[in-house]
Write a structure and sequence with these properties.
The complex is a heterodimer of chains A (172) and B (139). By secondary structure, chain A is of the alpha+beta class. Chain A has four helices and six strands. The relative contact order of chain A is 0.13. Chain B is built from five helices and three strands; from the N terminus they run βααββααα. Chain B is elongated. The chains are: A alpha+beta (172), B mainly alpha (139).
Chain lengths: 172, 139
């Protein structure tokens, strides 16, 4: 099933084909969620991985620490990998996966506190993540990969606003 | 080999994959004991539901919501006007509830990135985008 997965990025293809099961099982490096459809039962439409992570507060300069909580590390949830098979691109699979991922991040943050969603994006996908409110973290290093973040408080606010559009109260 | 993955079942947008035809409505018949028949009648009256088909549709919607919530790890509670809480526990629902136990993974940060992150994070955060609101509403 995983052998036929092709998102156009060799590293992401290799991960789902060879490493995802090991990372989730014996190594405990990340949890992989795969999207399947009964319409094509033998194919993986897309996948993403989640892990807890953190942002080292200790290494931040004093002048930028004023507004941040006084913990040694700032807890975050990492979307380590995110990919959609090119055969199913343009059909809403990425949006459904992102919806699932962010809802999972919000739920996970209730169990083990997290403030931010982190994402390591390929350069070509930065604009797509920005549509969901992810912000680029400028860096001189890591060419080809872009660290991005999204405040979970913004995600929670979006959920509240989404609920407002789902349910309307009749009056009178 | 793949049983460890957590799967998300997708229903793709209308038109589906390669224009596969949409399925016709499925016929559903069930024999219910007489005591449940009375319960069914009472429920339909209370809910002002006029047909078995309509009742089934609403029951599926409610069950689907409950399954979706438990799949995301949410617990289902009722709260009385006095604030007393009762949790809905069904073995079928508990079987599908995931254990949200994420492993830890360290990400390498350089000083440059940490400075930029801190500067961005301490700004007033922007309002949710339309895409984000739709994603959180599962639309």
């Amino acid at each position: 099933m995983a052998d036929s997965f092709d998102c156009g990025e060799q590293q992401l293809n290799e991960f789902i084909r060879r490493y995802a099961v090991k990372h989730q099982g014996p190594h405990m490096f990340g949890v992989t969620y795969v999207a399947l459809s009964s319409e094509v039962p033998d194919r993986i439409l897309g996948y993403y991985t989640l892990a807890n992570s953190s942002i080292s507060r200790d290494k931040m300069p004093e002048e930028v620490l004023k507004g941040l909580p006084k913990y040694s590390d700032i807890p975050a949830i990492l979307i380590g990998r995110f990919a959609v098979d090119t055969a199913f691109s343009g059909r809403g699979v990425g949006h459904i996966l992102m919806s699932h991922a962010l809802n999972m991040c919000l739920e996970a943050s209730k169990l083990s506190a997290a403030r931010y969603v982190l994402n390591l994006s390929y350069a070509g996908a930065v604009a797509w993540y920005k549509k969901y409110g992810f912000q680029e973290i400028p860096s001189q290093e890591n060419p080809g990969h872009q660290k991005m973040f999204l405040d979970l408080a913004v995600v929670r606010r979006a959920q509240e606003m989404g609920m407002e559009t789902l349910f309307t109260v009749k009056t009178g | 080999m793949y049983h460890n993955w957590i799967t998300i079942q997708l229903t793709l947008k209308p038109g589906g994959l390669g224009g596969l035809p949409m399925r016709a409505a499925k016929k559903f018949q069930a024999d219910i004991p007489s005591r449940d028949e009375q319960v069914l009648t009472c429920l339909m009256e209370e809910l002002e539901v006029r047909s078995n088909a309509d009742f089934l549709t609403k029951a599926i919607a409610l069950f689907r919501w409950a399954v979706d919530e438990r799949k995301r790890g949410c617990k289902i509670f009722t709260m009385s006007p006095q604030g007393q809480q009762r949790e809905l526990v069904m073995p079928e629902l508990e079987r599908i509830a995931p254990e949200l136990d994420l492993p830890f993974r360290s990400v390498g940060w350089n000083i440059d990135e940490l400075e930029n992150f801190a500067e961005l994070a301490t700004r007033e955060q922007p309002e949710p985008t339309e895409h984000l609101i739709r994603a959180m509403a599962r639309k």
